[in-house]
Write a structure and sequence with these properties.
CATH class of the largest domain: Alpha Beta
Radius of gyration: 22 Å
Number of strands: 13
Shape: globular
CATH architecture of the largest domain: 3-Layer(aba) Sandwich
Oligomer: single chain
Largest sheet: 8 strands, mixed
Distance between the termini: 54 Å
Helix content: 40-55%
CATH superfamily of the largest domain: Vaccinia Virus protein VP39
Number of helices: 14
CATH topology of the largest domain: Rossmann fold
Number of domains: 2
């Protein structure tokens, strides 16, 4: 499939992907601008898309660059601060995107007009980002395959304050390419050479679902070694709902962006179990295999909390911060299970339910766990 044919038709998966990126971008902007207003004035922020495409699918559906710019135009603070850079190695895509951007109503209201370029994504761009002290930047890296995607690239763009990255991880192609000698170089820069070699050995004889978990876990481990302590994958199934086609992987060094993205990905998940989101999208809604601990139902959360926090007193927010990373639970899930645990007298809450609004469990409620876990 060529880069152009990738944009032949907008699919449900592509629309969900664009919505996740757009919603996070809007939330990210509000946090960054609020912080800049508090501590600084006149600061810039940036959005960079290294594989931008032509701007629209051939069926007319807008792709991410147009959605981002329309969001910016509607927000005065963004108009004054936002720097946008869109890149696509295909000159035809870059030319088409330029035309589409010029036709957006109000695009001239942006203080910094969008920059469109047609460069190969490789070592040259990585070295450039490594040398720069970046302004707060949201990076979207959406290659068709794996060429250009590397640990070096991701690390170079999340190293500075306020810089987060979400990238397209084409599981289907990467899964096929891991043991292919002809693309070994691309796989090695994505996982790191030593980890890639260990992964190739580990994958021998694994079942498909075990193979997927091993591959994504290896990538998450590699990102964390670079300092991206908070990594969140969102899985997409193919049109038949039988196989994974790709993941969106979010990487950041800070817990707040992780929390924000978790809420957004949970909202766009096609399934949930006891209120716990699948962190994935399946067109046929029959997928059930989740990664890491993403297959644990809400019932298990109660037991984990009783065990991990036995004998301790913590606020709701502290419980969430200490426990949620790498697990599928949102703050809503924690509050729901803590409320249930209080009703069953498994914990003590201060203030108690009688002094709170009905069926609520606030961020600052103090929770005391028994020294020894009680049975529900």
């Amino acid at each position: 499939m060529s880069g152009n044919s990738f944009f032949d038709e907008s699919t449900a998966q592509s629309r969900i992907k664009a919505a996740i990126v757009r919603d996070y971008f809007w939330a990210w902007v509000r946090v960054i601008v609020s912080t800049q207003k508090k501590w600084k004035k006149g600061e810039r922020i940036a959005y960079i898309d290294l594989f931008a495409g032509p701007g629209r699918y051939k069926d007319g559906t807008k792709s991410t660059p147009l959605l981002i710019l329309e969001t910016a135009i509607a927000y005065p603070d963004m108009c004054e601060r936002l720097v946008t850079i869109f890149n696509d190695v295909d000159p035809a895509n870059a030319e088409a995107l330029t035309k589409e951007i010029n036709e957006i109503p109000g695009v001239r209201s942006l203080k910094y007009q969008p920059q469109i370029q047609a460069e190969e994504v490789g070592d040259k761009i990585v070295q450039m980002f490594e040398k720069l002290n970046l302004i707060p930047t949201f990076f979207f890296v959406d290659p068709w395959g794996y060429k250009g995607l590397s640990l070096g690239l991701i690390n170079s763009v999340i190293k500075n304050w306020g810089c987060d990255c979400i990238f397209f991880f084409n599981y289907n192609r990467i899964n096929m390419g891991i043991t292919n000698k002809f693309v070994e170089e691309h796989i090695d820069v994505l996982f790191g050479k030593d980890r890639a070699e260990a992964l190739r050995k580990k994958l021998e004889g694994l079942k498909p679902e075990e193979r997927e978990a091993a591959i994504v876990e290896a990538l998450v481990e590699a990102l964390k070694e670079l300092g991206a302590a908070y990594v969140l994958p969102f899985c997409f199934k193919d049109e038949k709902g039988t196989r994974t086609s790709h993941h969106l992987i979010f990487a950041t060094k800070h817990p707040l962006p992780y929390k924000i993205m978790k809420e957004i990905m949970a909202k766009y998940s096609s399934e949930e179990n006891q209120g716990v989101a699948s962190f994935g999208y399946c067109p046929t809604s029959n997928s059930g295999n989740l990664l890491f601990e993403f297959n644990r139902p809400l019932d298990d959360l109660r037991d984990m909390l009783l065990e991990q926090f036995a004998g301790r007193t913590l606020s709701t927010t502290q419980i969430y911060d200490l426990h949620n990373v790498g697990r599928p639970y949102t703050m809503k899930n924690y509050k729901a299970i803590l409320l249930e645990m209080e009703r069953k007298q498994l914990i003590r809450a201060d203030p108690p339910s009688a002094k709170r609004k009905k069926d609520t469990f606030g961020d600052n409620v103090k929770v005391t766990f028994p020294a020894f876990a009680k049975k529900a």
